[in-house]
């Protein structure tokens, strides 16, 4: 192991200097491990997850590629499982309700699960950006439930680019052309995006009772129906007395409009786990925003890759 302290104080402990490396954005480098690209500070966390994380059969794991709706799903899963009507969401950022394994629990800060908002359920809800190809060995033995959310690649890329521009200060701007180039080549944290999505897609086809695959667009289109499906998958359906009202409340309290209006989510204060403003997880929350940024050439290039990668899988985007 090599430990290097970078200028911003992040440690890139845990990376092996012999790993393939690529420039990503500004001075940031990504390291390739087991076919996926990582920021160095999360490589150690990733290895610790694989070494130390002991999932329980009752755990619910939320898996996602970054910028595909993780924050939304964190608030929804927490609310569904705890039948919470929103009081908790008013005072806790969704990332403080559901921790991310390789970032918050086993990442540079090493926070314990008990630091996060308590739940009334015996199920722990844990999130991860790790791909199925890496996570499977750690999670499969516990046979716990996994919810995977994904989003169309053009909006994911646009959201990622905006997130990086707004939340980090680089000396030079990060041109969109560069972000597209890296994304198309798979060089993006936790990428390639396509391999990430396909890993969980295939697993959801093989083990539908344990892996729930949902898209950001489906959720946007009919949140209530999808939340009902999610609750059924989680084994806590909304079918008791008064449950329809609770379901309606959950849909509203987890909506972009509601969540982004809470002081805790509007705050420019940095999150304790990622040196990012708490507000950076809420931007527009819309489908199709890539049309405002990507030119025709970029759209055609990404669409062609999407067809090529997803074609045989039956996954449509
Ligand atoms: P945009 O940048 O397109 O607005 P993640 O949580 O995986 O980092 O994804 C962030 C994206 O989800 C951002 O997309 C953000 O605005 C959007 N988002 C956050 N909370 C949301 C919510 N409650 N409903 C819908 N979208 C939400």
UniProtKB/TrEMBL annotation:
GO terms for molecular function: sulfotransferase activity. InterPro entries: P-loop_NTPase, Sulfotransferase_dom. Residues 57-314 form the Sulfotransferase domain. The keyword Transferase applies. Keywords: Transferase. Its EC number is 2.8.2.-. The keyword Transport does not apply. PANTHER family: SULFOTRANSFERASE SULT (PTHR11783). Belongs to the sulfotransferase 1 family. This is Sulfotransferase.
